[in-house]
Design brief:
The chain contains twelve helices and ten strands. The protein is α/β, with parallel strands linked by helices and 272 residues long. The strands form three sheets. Strands 6-7-8-9-10 form a five-stranded parallel β-sheet. The longest helix has 15 residues.
């Protein structure tokens, strides 16, 4: 069975050194620092049988934390195991559009990642809209975080309704993958994934054993084609996140879609 992790970071030293991640370090007991070797990320994937990982670049108001060219270089080292998601300076919309276009057409990245709490702007902020339009033109998804934040920043940009709902209404051709489940607004997130053919959700930053009951019921039922597996590595490893998979009550088809099939279809990953 193909296992795809749709939300990963191979962290750089400047990413790990950000004070905003101190709360995550405290909760997880991690003390990572410095530039980690790519072998460490691949080792974590291998330990859980992850076939393919989608590494995300990071760009925020403080600048580039994980660069698009760095992500592309890691993928060139392990093209059978890794794909990449671009990050851009959304405060400069036209520069951001040009960079996204370069990332997809020249670097081969397969989507865009935006972390709204990082900027303090919800997903329907006007500065994101040129990027959404370019994603449609390039035929790539956009991944966004929903729900509360781990770093001690405002969670308001992660509220699915009305912010993400506005985007889904105004960009019906845009494939949207909402990461991190959506707690405490899980029902809002599930309602969007139910109503809109182009809206999906992933389980990154959550161990499967801790998923809310209504989210698990969605996975077992009409949401089987809407949910993808993710970790938010290095915050959590795939081995940690997969704990409790057998207790979800998914049949074989739903399990295959969740672990890889949905990601392969939505991110256009081919045979992966």
């Amino acid at each position: 069975m193909t296992l795809v992790d749709v939300w990963m970071q191979h962290p750089t030293a400047r990413f790990l050194a950000q004070p905003m991640f101190e709360s995550l370090r405290r909760w997880t007991g991690q003390s990572l620092a410095g530039d980690l070797p790519l072998a460490a990320t691949l080792g974590a994937m291998n330990a859980a049988g992850v076939t393919l990982g989608l590494l995300a670049a990071w760009h925020g108001p403080q600048g580039e934390l994980i660069g698009n060219d760095e992500v592309a270089a890691w993928i060139r080292q392990e093209p059978a195991r890794l794909r990449g998601l671009a990050a851009v300076d959304v405060a400069r919309p036209m520069d951001a559009v040009r960079e996204l276009r370069r990332c997809v057409k020249s670097l081969g990245l397969v989507g865009l990642r935006i972390v709204p709490w990082l900027w303090g702007w919800p997903p329907d902020d006007r500065r994101y809209y040129p990027l959404y339009a370019e994603c449609v033109e390039l035929d790539v998804p956009v991944g966004l975080q929903v729900g509360h934040t781990g770093p001690l920043r405002s969670s308001e940009p992660g509220r699915p309704i009305p912010y993400l709902e506005h985007v889904a209404l105004e960009f019906p051709e845009l494939r949207i993958v909402a990461g991190h489940v959506g707690v405490p607004w899980t029902q809002e997130m599930l309602s969007l994934a139910t109503r809109f053919p182009n809206v999906y959700v992933d389980t990154s930053a959550w161990k499967l054993s801790r998923l809310p009951a209504d989210f698990v019921a969605f996975m077992r039922g009409h949401g089987a084609r809407k949910v993808m597996f993710g970790t938010n590595y290095p915050m959590l490893s795939a081995a940690q996140c997969l704990e409790g998979l057998g207790d979800l009550g998914l049949d074989a088809e739903a399990t295959g879609l969740f672990l890889g099939g949905n990601a392969i279809r939505v991110f256009r990953l081919g045979a992966a």
